[in-house]
Amino acid sequence: MYNQVVDAENPDAGTPDPGTPDPGTLTDEQAGRIFASMNEVIRAGEEMRGLRAELIEALAGLGWTQDTIARLAGMSQPAVSKQMVKARRGEPAPRIGLALDQRDVPWLEGRLWGLAEEISETLDGTAACTGAVHALARGRKRFSPQAVDALRRLVEADLRDRRAALPPGYRDAYDAISRALDIPAKSPAPAPGSPSVRRALACRLQRDRLRAGT
C-alpha cells in the first residue's frame, strides 16, 4: 500500500533518468571505440595486401622466380603470377638497390624501424620503443614526421638507459641513421620503389645487419 502511494505521488519514479546510461546498452563512445579498433585492423590488412603486391613486383624486378616468391610469401604460384600480370599492365618497376647506406627518407625510416624492433626484442618487450614499434607494425601509426621524431626519442632513451643490455653496434647504427635523417640527401629523382616497400626492405636489411654484428 505504501508503494502505491509513493508511485501515485511520483508517477515518474520507475522511469530511468535519461541522462543515466542503460547498463544493457552500449554508449556511442563504446560503439565508436569498437568500430575504431575494427577499422584499424581492416586498414592495416588492406595496406599489407598492397605492400605485399608491391614487394612481389620488386622481388620479380630483382630476378626472383615466381615459384620462389610464392613459397616464401605463402601463396600459390598462380596467385603470384596473377599479381605479376597486374603489375605488367603499368610501367615496369625500377630495380631497387639493396645497399644499406641509402639516404632517402623512407629508407632511413625503415632502418630506424628495424633498429627499434631489434632493441624491443633484445629487451624482451620492455624497451621504451616497444609500444611505438607495435603501433607502426599494426598500422595504428603512420610514418609521419611526428611519429618518426617520437620513435627517435624513444630509441635514444633505450640506448641511453639500457646501454649495458644492448650491443654497441646498436648505438653506431642509430648515430648513422640519425645523422642522415637530420641532413637527408637531395636527389634530383625519387628513389625507386614506393616508400612503403623501401621502408620494409630497409627494416629487414637493418635487422639482419645488426644480428650479424657488422
List the helices and strands and how they pair.
Elements: H1 2-9, H2 28-61, H3 66-73, H4 77-88, H5 105-122, H6 130-137, H7 145-161, H8 168-182, H9 195-212
Helix pairs in contact: 2-4, 3-4, 5-7, 5-8, 5-9, 7-8
Outline: globular
Number of domains: 2
Which oligomeric state applies? Answer: single chain
Strand content: under 5%
Question: Mean of the pLDDT scores?
Answer: 84
Distance between the termini: 88 Å
Which structural category fits the helices and strands? mainly alpha
Largest sheet: none
Radius of gyration (CA) equals 26 Å
Helix-strand topology string: HHHHHHHHH
Work out the number of β strands: 0
Helix content: 55-70%
Unreliable residue stretches: 1-8
Query: Number of helical runs?
Result: 9
Region (Disordered): 1-28
Biased composition (Low complexity): 11-28
Descriptive report:
This protein has helices spanning 2-9, 28-61, 66-73, 77-88, 105-122, 130-137, 145-161, 168-182, 195-212. With 214 residues, it is mostly helical. It has two domains: 28-88, no CATH class; 105-212, no CATH class. Helices cover 64% and strands 0% of the residues. 25% of the residues are buried. Residues 11-28 have a biased composition (Low complexity). Residues 1-28 are annotated as: Disordered.
